[in-house]
């Protein structure tokens, strides 16, 4: 009881303090527009200390008057009248009476280019971006921002040393105008040299760093090029920090070219990552990844990976070469051994692969590649005799692409995504089989309300194996559906036809769809209601009686970079062997 009394008293004291804090430092009187009054009130501010005497009230009134004048001038009201005063109340109150007068307007803005003047194109660009229209309100922030745009336009066109000298602004009370004249010193046109590494170069070769530069020696300076080089280096993921900047003027070479300074801080050369997972249907899993960075001195990554789980185990290596042959292009080569033990089949084998990915933006890409595999597949049921036999060699190509027009990779609220994957494959065993595996997926995100706290999300996925049939396609290469990334509420591979003993058959065609309604609650939490559906068939497209659906709800907690999600789903078409419900935990939205 004693602790409760103390807590209530503390809450009351905090509430009283909050109430006092809401008192303005001075009362504002006068015929003012709502937005102007609000701006002056913010400038005057609030206080939690009451006025104790007239001297204190007079001081606050004078300070409030100075703040009001600053706001009026910044908004273009130069014919103002501001009168600080003290009320007759007890205790006394601070008052500031404001008459803004007419708003002054802009007139005849000018740019004065100091010698040596830049070329005519730069001068015209400066005038174009100034953005001050005669007759517009003479707001101080507009006058100041225009100056910044003029300097930026000169720098963008090669005048890296462009600066603004003190400007001249004439406030004419006779015609109520504001006439700004900008004095810009553009300096000399800057042409670029190569790179100069500042501090320790670390493990990266200078020749590779120069290969990333988006300019050629002698080209005119563009700040976007400097920013692009910094982005390219950061994208590799092998540096803790990257700084790229133009060298000072005194470092100009005898040929008149200026280098770009690069400062790099290498991340630790090796990392070890460990992970574990558990599912009541898929069992335990453990992952390990050992990574070595920058072995070849070109921001490369060499990784050894291992996974052991009830369903999927593998051991392999992968080499990644970012910006291979050209910027934004990544070469990946890898290989290893794998083993899968699923309800439909057991597979063991080894393979190698290589692909080249060309990236457009952060999440859009085009990939071309290929792979060679040997595998031994044992189907749990031999109803469909596979004419290829158990030992199969596979040669496969890969053409994949993604176009992402959503606003966030982990928590999209608006936009859309489209993905396409083509895998021409040739299988060789006791007989041979050639087919084309096609998969495509599209997602749409529609927000409701200005803050997008409610989002409707939809997903559709289609797949087909052209040229393959159930009796010839190995079980490991067929389509399956069910599980966290497919149709929630069902176990892995549980969607689609099954043999008499409940073993999944798989199929040569696939259809999946999902619909979610996502609602944000408070600052970090959110809830989701969803329906998933899917089907696997033996033809070019699944038939209507092969569809199964699941439904459920979930919660989301925003970690800052994306949400962590927990979903519970039930199968709406429950068959023998299906669990009553499924629980899923992951990072990021389900699609």
A few lines on this structure:
This protein has 591 residues and is of the alpha+beta class. The chain has helices at 2-21, 34-44, 54-74, 120-130, 140-156, 206-212, 223-235, and strands spanning 23-24, 27-29, 46-47, 81-86, 94-99, 105-106, 110-114, 163-172, 177-185, 191-197, 239-246, 257-266, 270-279, 283-293, 301-309, 312-321, 329-341, 345-360, 364-379, 391-404, 415-428, 432-448, 454-466, 509-521, 525-537, 547-558, 563-571, 582-587.
Strand order in the sheet with the most strands? 13-14-15-16-17-18-19-20-21-22-23-24-25-26-27-28
Care to count the β-strands? 28
Please give the alpha-carbon distance between the first and last residues.
Answer: 51 Å
Q: Runs with pLDDT <50, length 5+?
A: 1-19
Shape: extended
Number of continuous helical runs: 7
Percent range of helical residues: 10-25%
Derived from helix and strand composition plus strand pairing, the structural class reads alpha+beta
> For the residues shown, what is the average pLDDT?
90
Largest sheet, described in full? 16 strands, antiparallel
Rg over CA atoms? 34 Å
User: Beta-sheet strand percentage?
Assistant: over 45%
């Amino acid at each position: 009881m004693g602790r409760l009394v103390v807590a209530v008293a503390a809450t009351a004291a905090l509430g009283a303090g909050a109430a006092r804090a809401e008192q303005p430092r001075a009362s504002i009187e006068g015929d003012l527009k709502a937005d102007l009054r609000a701006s002056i009130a913010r400038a005057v501010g609030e206080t939690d200390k009451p006025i104790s005497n007239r001297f204190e009230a007079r001081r606050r009134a004078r300070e409030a008057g100075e703040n009001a004048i600053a706001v009026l001038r910044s908004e273009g009201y130069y014919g103002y009248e501001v009168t600080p005063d003290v009320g007759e109340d007890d205790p006394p109150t601070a008052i500031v009476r404001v008459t803004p007068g007419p708003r002054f307007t802009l007139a005849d803005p000018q740019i004065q280019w100091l010698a040596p003047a830049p070329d005519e194109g730069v001068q015209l660009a400066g005038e174009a971006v100034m953005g001050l229209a005669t007759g517009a309100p003479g707001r101080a922030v507009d006058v100041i921002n225009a100056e910044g745009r003029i300097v930026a336009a000169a720098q963008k066109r090669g005048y890296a040393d462009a600066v603004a000298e003190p400007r001249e602004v004439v406030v004419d009370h006779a015609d109520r105008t504001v006439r700004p004249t900008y004095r810009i010193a553009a300096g000399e046109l800057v042409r670029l040299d190569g790179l100069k590494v500042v501090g320790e170069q670390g493990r990266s070769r200078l020749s590779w760093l120069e290969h990333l530069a988006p300019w050629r020696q002698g080209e005119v300076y563009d700040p976007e090029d400097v920013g692009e080089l910094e982005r390219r280096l950061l994208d590799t993921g092998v540096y803790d920090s990257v700084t790229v900047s133009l060298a000072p003027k005194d470092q100009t070479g005898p040929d008149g070219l200026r280098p770009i300074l690069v400062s790099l801080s290498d991340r630790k050369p090796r990392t070890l990552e460990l992970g574990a997972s558990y599912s009541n249907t898929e069992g335990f899993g453990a992952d390990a990844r050992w990574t070595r960075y920058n072995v070849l001195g070109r921001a490369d990554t060499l990784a050894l990976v291992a996974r052991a789980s009830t369903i999927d185990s593998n051991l392999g290596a992968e080499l990644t070469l970012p910006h291979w042959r050209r910027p934004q292009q990544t070469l990946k080569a890898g290989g290893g051994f794998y083993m899968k033990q699923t309800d439909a089949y057991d597979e063991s084998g080894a393979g190698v692969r290589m692909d080249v990915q060309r990236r457009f933006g952060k999440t859009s890409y085009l990939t071309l590649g290929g792979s060679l595999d040997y595998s031994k597949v044992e189907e749990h049921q031999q109803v469909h005799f596979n004419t290829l036999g158990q030992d199969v060699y596979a040669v496969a190509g890969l053409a994949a692409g993604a176009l992402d027009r959503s606003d966030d990779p982990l928590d999209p609220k608006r936009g859309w995504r489209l993905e396409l994957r083509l895998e021409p494959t040739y299988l060789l065993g006791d007989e041979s089989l050639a087919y084309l595996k096609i998969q495509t997926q599209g997602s749409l995100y529609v927000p409701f309300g200005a803050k997008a706290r409610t989002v409707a999300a939809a997903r559709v996925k289609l797949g087909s194996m052209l040229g393959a049939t159930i009796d010839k396609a190995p079980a490991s290469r067929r389509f399956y559906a069910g599980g966290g990334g497919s149709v929630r509420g069902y176990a892995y591979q549980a969607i689609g036809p099954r043999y008499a003993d409940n073993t999944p058959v798989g199929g040569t065609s696939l259809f999946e769809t999902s619909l979610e309604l996502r609602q944000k609650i408070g600052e970090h939490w959110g809830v989701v209601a969803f329906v998933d559906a899917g089907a696997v068939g033996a033809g070019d497209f699944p038939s209507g009686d092969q569809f199964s659906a699941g439904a459920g709800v979930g919660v989301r907690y925003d970690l800052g970079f994306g949400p962590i999600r927990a979903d519970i789903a039930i199968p709406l078409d429950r068959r023998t062997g299906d669990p009553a419900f499924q629980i899923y935990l992951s990072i990021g939205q389900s699609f």
